[in-house]
Design goal:
single chain, mainly alpha, Serine Threonine Protein Phosphatase 5, Tetratricopeptide repeat, 10 helices
Length: 272
């Protein structure tokens, strides 16, 4: 048996099969492109998937399937297809397009860090593409803005946390007795003049001095004695008359039984 001839036959059949598969995949890609251009994204996705199932490493099918996923906002699938495209391609132009579109996917997801890296890789494969350069600059700007906003949010959270702590301190302080209330309480306990009040339970009561003047007595002393009214005598005159009567009564003690001592019959009004 001629093994060499058999080897070439198998190689020919394999090549023919691969050619047939690639041709079929190409036809599916063409059909998918038509539907994609007509914005029939569901039908286009179906055609591209068939092409990928026949030729898993066919970069054109992978890239176009990623575009369709992007159009229907299936960003997870789109990023996966663009990554597979750049990985399976040996052409810088295909790698550039895959990284450019991958950057656009990350922009839609607001993942600006990944977007910057994707656009940067796109520029490495095609430094002259102005659209990729513009998207790269925009992604960097948005990333910087996001960092600033994160810092501001962190600052605000710290401020809110400090504010909550201050409020807690105020609340705790409010629970304590107000110094003003303490002062009022102390006044009540000590008296209006601030001197401590003596506890009647602990200390015996003291009688006031007998010669202590009542309120208004001093004012009365300052006032002149009232003038005697007509037909009346003053207290001083009454006192003098009483003393005179007593002296007279002592002088005539021997005549008490015979004659009663008579006083001057005057009407007096007690004025003290």
């Amino acid at each position: 048996m001629n093994y060499k001839a058999l080897y070439f036959l198998i190689l020919l059949l394999s090549s023919t099969l691969l050619w047939s598969q690639d041709e079929a995949a190409n036809n599916l890609v063409v059909d998918g492109n038509k539907e994609h251009n007509q914005e029939e994204y569901i039908g286009a996705e179906s055609q591209y998937r068939k092409a990928v199932s026949i030729a898993p490493n066919k970069t054109e099918a992978l890239h176009n399937l990623g575009n369709t996923n992007y159009r229907i906002a299936d960003y997870g699938s789109a990023s996966q297809r663009f990554f597979q495209t750049q990985k399976n391609s040996n052409l810088k132009e295909e790698k550039h397009a895959a990284f450019h579109n991958l950057g656009n996917v990350y922009m839609q997801q607001k993942d600006y860090t990944q977007a910057v890296e994707a656009f940067k890789n796109g520029l490495r494969n095609n430094p002259k593409d102005e659209e990729t350069r513009y998207n790269y600059a925009l992604a960097k700007e948005l990333l910087e803005k996001e960092k600033q906003e994160d810092q501001q949010d962190k600052h605000d959270q710290d401020q809110d946390k400090e504010g909550d702590q201050d409020q807690e301190k105020k609340d705790d302080k409010g629970k304590q007795e107000d110094p003003k209330d303490e002062g009022d309480k102390e006044k009540k306990e000590n008296g209006e003049d601030g001197d401590p009040k003596e506890d009647s339970k602990d200390k015996p009561k003291e009688d006031k001095p007998k010669n202590q003047e009542k309120e208004g007595d001093s004012d009365k002393k300052k006032q002149p004695p009232p003038k005697p009214k007509l037909g009346q005598i003053s207290p001083e005159q009454v006192k003098s008359l009483l003393e005179a009567m007593n002296n007279q009564e002592k002088g005539v003690q021997k005549k008490v039984n015979a004659q009663k001592a008579k006083g001057v019959p005057v009407k007096t009004k007690k004025d003290w």
